[in-house]
Each structure stands twice: as C-alpha cells, then as structure tokens.
Amino acid sequence: MVSGTEHRRFYGVVSVVIVLDLATKLVAEALLPKYVGVPVVGEVFQLRLVYNPGAAFGLHLGEYSRWIFMGLSLAALFVLGSMLKTTRRGDWLRLYALASICAGAAGNLVDRVRSSRGVVDFLDFTLGALHWPTFNVADTAITCGAVALALSLWEEGKQHEIAPAPEVVPPAQP
Length: 174
Description:
The structure is a single chain. By secondary structure, this protein is α+β, with helices and mostly antiparallel strands. The chain has one domain (4-157). The chain is built from four helices and four strands, in the order αββααββα. It has helices spanning 4-31, 65-86, 92-114, 137-162; strands at 38-41, 45-52, 119-127, 130-135. It has a four-stranded antiparallel beta sheet. It is elongated and about 85 Å long. The relative contact order is 0.17. The model has no long low-confidence stretch (mean pLDDT 90).
C-alpha cells in the first residue's frame, strides 16, 4: 500500500497533467483555426485544432460514442484507482504510470462532458507519407503512462520468476 507521501505525489502528478491538458486545449481553441495546420516545424509538426468524437486513432462507435467513451473512462478511472490501492510502497514507476493514465483519462473525460463535439486535439505530426493522428497532452500522458505501467508489470513478473520457491518440508515419517 502506498504511503501518504506517495499519495501526495500521485495527486500532484494528476493535478499538473490535468491543468496542463485543459489549459493547452483552451489556448488551442482560442487561438487556432479549425482544421487548418499552423506550422511549427515545417510540415513535420503543426498545431491543428480538431475535435475527435471517438477515441484514439479515430475509433468511433456511432452516435453513442460520446456516452460509451464517458462510461469507459469512468470504468478505467475506477480500475486504476483499485490498482493504486494495491500498489506496493516504493513502486514509483507504477505510481507515476497510474497517475499519468488517470490524469489523461480525466482530461479527455472533461472534454466529452463539456461538449458533444468531442475531445480537443491539436498536436499534429507528419513524417513524409506517415501522418500520426492528431492528439493532445492527455493522450500523451495516457500513452506514456501505459508504457510505464507495462514496464512496471513486466518488472514485477520478472521478480516473481526469480524469487526462490518456498521450501517444502515433507511430513515426518512415523
């Protein structure tokens, strides 16, 4: 179980990421033209305001996408909260992973709640013929957190593999 200091760090990371996500989305909506790229580094990196009514990579589930993804976000936050409760003290990688994913899910959930247009995305990367779907700070936090969580779980699995098996003492013979 995580300590009080770890809980404070968890909520600190969550707060910083949510504030950064929501602030950058507000700035993007206030300053960027819709659907028109504003070059930052040529055509490689542009700021392009788009609204995504679905999920990552344009996944869309019809007219109820908004409500489905709101429900999935809430379910994910519940599961991640449960994982936090079982996180071992001192497992900083898992703590930051869960905080990043929770913050990203919450940031995108705020967008879905406040507008039927969808999640505000504005970071746009293209490398030659390869175009990455437009994304935001919350998406970045979710992705980085998912990678960190996978590493944390992998490391935990390795520790279980190399842990010595408990010694079995045969019962005494009469």
